[in-house]
Amino acid sequence: MSVCKKGKGIYVVRWREGDRHRSLKVHGTEEFARKVEREKLCLRDENRYPDISKEINYRMSELIDRYWVQYGVKKASAGRERSILAGIGSELGSMFVRNVDGTHIQRWCDNLTGKRGLAENTAVRHFNVMHHLMKKASTIWSRETGLTQNPADMVEIKRSDDSRERFLSKEELKRLKIALDERIFRKGTKDFNQTNLRMRLIVLLAISTGMRSAEIYSLRWPDVMYREKLIAVRAKLKKGKHRYVPMTSELAEEIRRYPAVIGKDRLFLPTCGDENKRQRLAGNFNNLLARARIRDFRFHDLRHTFASWYMMNGGDLYELAKLLGHSNIKMTERYAKLGRAHIAKTGTTARVIWSMMDKASEQEEEEREWHTA
Q: 41-93, pLDDT tens digit by residue?
């Protein structure tokens, strides 16, 4: 066994198995390459490559179809899942599952951001599907596939920093509201501009409740509970359960203004009429940001804006986790420092108390001196 460095972040692991010399190119750190080396030694010593596995001709296309039926179709993001699986099938579908190794998956990953030009975050989502697919192939379906380890474990994917905390300032919030108000009506008329009215309500829902875009698009009219001043969030995302978010009187008035489509119970119908199609704001939202002179901002940052201002106004971290639908409080803790910083700037109560105590001490000292005299 040996580990040789071939370039920046590229190592070649060499070992002997049976009567043959084998090698594997690894992308990552030297520590990761050493880990691969140890795993190859263990696999060789445990003899986990029986000859019978070479007779199993189970193709990736069959694996993808099986995975889709048992897992993919049941996910909330089924549409996106199907597209990702189709991409895997177009590149690796004709291969036998037992022959797919880390090199093949690494090449597929490189093509995501290379040939296909996907963003890093999108490429990570594609890799997560691949990893889960091959995990099932190497565990519960290993007898059919001939695969005994997950080859995706041999790939070190670059994950972007998810600690972005961009939120709107007071001035930006004012400009955003002005930009939203500008184009409610069609130019020169008193008729509602349906496209801008739709975007307006979506933006106001996101910034007033912290809801995700997919949750907003899944809203149905019965979810708007005017009497209770609540909105029921029933979209099951990221293992979340049904939850409720508060609805201010201003938001309620905006929802009442929004016209319902007769015979449809969803607030936001896809423009093409296919209710299962994913929806995007894209150009309309970018135009809104341009009119409001807001830069470096994404739609998801409206959720950060809600959470940030909630904490800066004395909100409770655990209550915020419930409002955002976080299953783990660690996801919410990024906003804790905003609460602490704001409290440190505006916490005048303690200074007032100390001032009163100091004055009381001075008065007591004066009275004691008067009695002594």
A: 777 665 554 444 556 789 999 999 999 999 998 887 788 899 999 999 999 99
DSSP state string for 134-161: HHHHHTTTHHHH---S-GGGG-------
Domain positions in the chain: 1-49, 55-160, 170-340
The pLDDT, as a whole number, for residue 49 is 47
Find the DSSP H helices in the chain: 30-45, 60-70, 78-92, 102-113, 120-138, 142-145, 170-182, 194-209, 213-217, 249-257, 283-291, 301-312, 317-324, 329-332, 336-346, 349-372
Q: What is the pLDDT of residue 341?
A: 65
Task: Name which residue leads in pLDDT, 347 or 88.
Answer: 88
Contact 182, 196 (CB under 8 A): no
Q: How far apart are the first and last CA of the chain?
A: 94
DSSP string, 30-44: HHHHHHHHHHHHHHH
**Domain 55-160, what architecture?**
Orthogonal Bundle (1.10)
Contacts of 29 (CB under 8 A, 6+ apart): 9, 156
pLDDT at 316 over 90: no
d(CA 85, CA 277): 17
Give the model confidence (pLDDT) of 257-310 as tens digits.
Answer: 888 776 688 888 776 545 545 556 667 888 999 999 999 999 989 999 999 999
Q: How far apart are CA 230 and CA 219, in angstroms?
A: 13
Pick the CATH number of 170-340 from 1.10.443.10, 3.40.630.30, 1.10.1330.10, 1.10.10.10: 1.10.443.10
The pLDDT assigned to 108 comes to 93
Give the residue from 199, 235, 241 showing the smallest Cα distance to 218: 235
* 2 in Cβ contact with 16 (< 8 Å): no
Closest by CA to 183, choosing from 268, 269, 288, 58, is: 288
Total residue count of the chain as it appears in this document: 373
Question: Six-digit token pair at 366?
Answer: 């004066």
243-246 and 230-233 as β-strands: parallel, antiparallel, unpaired?
antiparallel
